[in-house]
């Protein structure tokens, strides 16, 4: 193929639309690969390659932390003699994961299979073994769906126009049409040699050399090779930043959306999957900060409650093993799923939309209420159009549920409240799937109010100050790397009396902060603190003010805040009133 011009683009879009139409008409619900994948809910993402030898980020550290010349020679020392495909797949299975997505090729161009289209692959390392073959076989043996991640951009390949660091350099003699053929050949090679796959998970489509026409044609081509293949939205050009939601889905190929390092918004009209790391870096990093058991499990629950899947990433070590502490954390998740998996697998999100403190899932006539954080008293939910005929608490103890035309009240004695997730099952007198999802009103006086900040990550609206006040645990205000001081401000619209604050921070970077209110143009400090962490709550003497500021005085790196909530009484934002 020499060109990808207008006629070819029109043909590609036509093929794409035809494939989608045939796909929708020929797959009844019981045999629908998309629905089968959605029912799985939980998968293992694996970012791995020679870069693990230096402990820096895969792809992105090439030409940045590690000179490109050095990075490109790491494969000559890559000899993960303790790699055991059976061990990896057994970890995934015991963790309750149903599918595994391996980085066949990341942005650095290195291939984890012996591709006949390049010499830069696992077969030319001291290890030599075909990692993908062994993993595909182990997955088949243990009933785990094998899938691959494949980068569209390739900062190593001479034909791809952009290079390291991070696609910010240009290569001397690129040939994008020829590179596209290379990409087609490699993805066909993967399907033919390691398929049928569950998912082909693309990435790197944001760079300018990749076009909608290329993406839609590749989608149609791969569907032609394997009609049951599920392909994410990053094959085309519709993804909107890290939020991962597809704009103009009718024009852009891709079967589902891909929010990254965040919990996606409640969305039940188009499939989606959050991809997130168990630590902070995608590839293995020594002493990387790992998420707590509570954070991992509540992330899974919030994602599924929002009607999505969770693809949870580990970065194996250079010797081939998944880091033991990461294995232990995944085993904790698996033990929880052994007990409560019926509230996750095969469910849909809703009918109550997810908040930082509460999620709901349903299957048939049963709604599962996941109470992630407790208020001082009862949980009050908006009313349902169907009658509750039975209630129970799955996590042990007793529960009292009262239903009226105005509200549903759930009371669990304090001693019976689970520290991670109290699960209450509500059985209705009819199916839950025809109930319109309803948002839980916020108890935060700051929700949806006008916000400002001293710094925003890359001036991106996706990380603007309003994201800390949107009652959405999947969005956040973020600052640029290297920022050590910053402020976040909200205007409540009128003077309000507040006496409590709840803040959720990502990455635990804040070391000293203060809360301030504006008094005749002067900022007055009324509370001082040190670390914030994933869930900080504090009460103080009531303050009446219209403008409130979180002033971060010291941080180890650019601070980022999921939610900043201001409360009028000593209640957490979990108390919701209809």
From TrEMBL:
Keyword terms of this UniProt record: Glycosidase, Hydrolase, Signal
Family of this protein: Belongs to the glycosyl hydrolase 29 family.
Cited function: Alpha-L-fucosidase is responsible for hydrolyzing the alpha-1,6-linked fucose joined to the reducing-end N-acetylglucosamine of the carbohydrate moieties of glycoproteins.
InterPro entries: FA58C, FUC_metazoa-typ, Galactose-bd-like_sf, GH, Glyco_hydro_29, Glyco_hydro_29_N
Pfam family, one: Alpha_L_fucos
F5/8 type C domain sequence ranges: 432-569
GO molecular function, one term: alpha-L-fucosidase activity
EC number(s) from the headed UniProt entry: 3.2.1.51
PANTHER family: ALPHA-L-FUCOSIDASE, ALPHA-L-FUCOSIDASE-RELATED
One Gene Ontology cellular component annotation held by this UniProt entry: lysosome
Protein name: alpha-L-fucosidase
Signal peptide start and end residues: 1-29
Any single biological process term in GO: fucose metabolic process
């Amino acid at each position: 193929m020499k060109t990808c011009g207008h006629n070819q683009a029109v043909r590609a879009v036509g093929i794409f639309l035809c494939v989608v139409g045939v796909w929708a008409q020929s797959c009844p619900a019981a045999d629908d690969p998309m629905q089968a994948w959605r029912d799985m809910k939980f998968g293992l993402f694996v970012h791995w390659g020679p870069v693990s030898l230096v402990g820096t980020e895969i792809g992105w550290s090439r030409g940045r932390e590690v000179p490109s010349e050095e990075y490109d020679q790491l494969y000559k020392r890559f000899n993960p003699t303790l790699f055991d495909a059976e061990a990896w797949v057994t970890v995934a299975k015991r963790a309750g994961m149903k599918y595994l997505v391996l980085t066949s090729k990341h942005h650095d161009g290195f291939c984890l299979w012996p591709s006949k289209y390049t010499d830069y692959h696992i077969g030319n390392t001291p290890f030599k073994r075909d990692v993908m073959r062994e993993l595909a076989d182990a997955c088949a043996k243990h009933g785990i769906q094998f899938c691959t991640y494949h980068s569209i951009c390739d900062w190593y390949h001479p034909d791809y126009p952009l290079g390291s660091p991070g696609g910010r350099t240009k290569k001397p003699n690129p040939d994008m049409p020829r590179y596209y053929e290379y990409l087609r050949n490699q993805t066909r090679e993967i399907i033919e040699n390691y398929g049928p796959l569950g998912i082909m998970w693309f990435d790197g489509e944001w760079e300018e050399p990749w076009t909608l026409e290329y993406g839609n044609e590749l989608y149609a081509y791969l569907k032609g090779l394997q009609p049951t293949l599920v392909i994410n939205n990053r094959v085309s050009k519709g993804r909107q930043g890290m939020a991962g939601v597809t704009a103009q889905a009718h024009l852009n190929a891709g079967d589902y959306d891909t929010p990254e390092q965040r919990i996606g918004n409640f969305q039940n009209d188009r499939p989606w999957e959050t991809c997130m790391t168990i630590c902070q870096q995608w590839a293995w990093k020594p002493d990387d900060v790992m998420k707590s058991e509570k954070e991992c499990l509540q992330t899974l629950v919030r994602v599924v409650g929002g009607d999505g899947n969770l693809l949870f990433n580990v970065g194996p070590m250079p010797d081939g093993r998944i880091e033991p502490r990461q294995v232990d954390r995944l085993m904790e998740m698996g033990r929880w799923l052994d007990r409560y998996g019926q509230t996750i697998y095969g469910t849909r999100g809703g009918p109550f939309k997810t908040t930082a403190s509460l999620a709901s899932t349903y299957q048939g006539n049963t709604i599962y209420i996941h109470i992630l954080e407790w208020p001082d008293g009862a949980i009050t939910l908006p009313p349902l159009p169907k009658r509750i005929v039975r209630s129970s608490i799955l996590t042990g103890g007793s529960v009292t549920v009262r239903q009226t035309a105005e509200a549903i009240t759930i009371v669990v004695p304090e001693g019976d409240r689970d520290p991670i997730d109290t699960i209450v099952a509500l059985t209705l007198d009819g199916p839950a799937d025809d109930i319109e999802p309803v948002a839980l009103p916020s108890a935060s006086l700051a929700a949806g109010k006008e916000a400002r900040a001293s710094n925003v990550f890359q001036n991106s609206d996706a990380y603007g100050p309003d994201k800390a006040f949107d009652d959405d645990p999947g969005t956040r205000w973020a600052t640029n790397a290297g920022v050590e001081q910053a402020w976040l401000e909200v205007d409540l619209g009128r003077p309000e009396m507040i006496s409590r604050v709840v803040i959720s921070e990502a990455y635990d970077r804040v070391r000293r902060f203060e809360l301030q209110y504006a008094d005749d143009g002067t900022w007055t400090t009324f509370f001082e603190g040190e670390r914030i962490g994933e869930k900080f709550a504090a009460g103080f003497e009531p303050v009446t003010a219209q403008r409130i500021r979180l002033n971060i005085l010291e941080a180890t790196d650019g601070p980022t805040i999921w939610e900043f909530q201001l409360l009028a009484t000593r209640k957490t934002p979990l108390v919701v009133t209809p």
